[in-house]
Amino acid sequence: MTIISDLACELLRRRPANTDGVHVTTRHLPHLTIHTTVIETATAAKAIGKPVGTYVNFAVEPDTNLDDTPLVGQLAKALRPLLPNRERLLVVGLGNDRFVADSLGPQVLRQLTPTPHLLTFEPNVRGVTGINSVDAIKAISDLVHPTAVIVIDSLVSAEPDRIGTNYQICTSGITPGSGLGRDNPCLNQALLGVPVIAVGIPVCTLLTKPHRPIYHVVPKDIDLVIDDCAMVVATAISTLP
Predict the structure, then answer these.
(1) pLDDT digits (tens, 9 = 90+) for 55-71
(2) What global pTM score does this model have?
(3) Which of 129, 205, 206, 219 is most buried, by CB atoms within 10 Å?
(4) DSSP per residue over 3-23, as a string?
């Protein structure tokens, strides 16, 4: 079975049973499950299909009021040790706000208040600006010299129930446009020279049929899903500096 997903917790299913170099822990809180996957070796990374790093997935129980969960506090709690120097934090919102399902990153930025310690940047997409988003982010990073970078993006999930209910934090960075098959460089510490933490939320699943292209499938209320998720992420980030 081919699993198309950006979530490490889903991709774990396709690893061989005897794969070494992977550690998984699960913690249960009220209406919230925190699933941590640590990929330590190149062999394990190849088996799972994700780079070496730590992946923390926060899964909210379906039909749960977000105010009844410790989600925001737990997101912030997980981010703080990954960003030990937050003196000049750059938050990058990937995506295209002309397409609702791809507008998570820009929507998060709209709910943040920039300060000398919290900078925001929206590179948009090449189809709108003519500029590769990775090149734009690298140039801005070189200009403002952040101490750490958070990159926000929409993700793909293999399970529709995870749309808008799962939040993934990872230390390995992110490759913009990978869900569309684009071969961009990875936004990570090796490229930018400072810690890069990716925060993503699945907003769609992919539907494939024999001899037909891949279709992105999104829920009808995706605009409400994006609004809620953007609020959660922005609130968590606002508590960091």
Answers:
(1) 999 999 988 888 889 99
(2) 0.91
(3) 205
(4) ---S-HHHHGGGS-TT--SEE
Which tokens hold the place of 50?
């994700």
Contact 89, 60 (CB under 8 A): no
Angle at 156 between CA 193 and CA 97, to 5 degrees: 75
Q: How many of the other CB atoms lie within 10 Å of CB of 96?
A: 20
CB contact burial 154-189 (16+ within 10 A = b; e otherwise): bbbbbeeebbbbbbbbbbbbbbbbebeeeebebbbb
Half-sphere exposure of 52 (CA within 13 A, CB side): 8
Q: How many CB atoms lie within 10 A of CB 62?
A: 10
Topology annotation, domain 8-238: Rossmann fold (3.40.50)
Q: Tell me if residue 90 falls in helix, strand or coil.
A: strand
User: Domain segments of the chain: what residues?
Assistant: 8-238
Instruction: Note whether 12 and 5 are within 8 A (CB).
Output: no
> Rounded CA gap, 58 and 26, in Å?
10
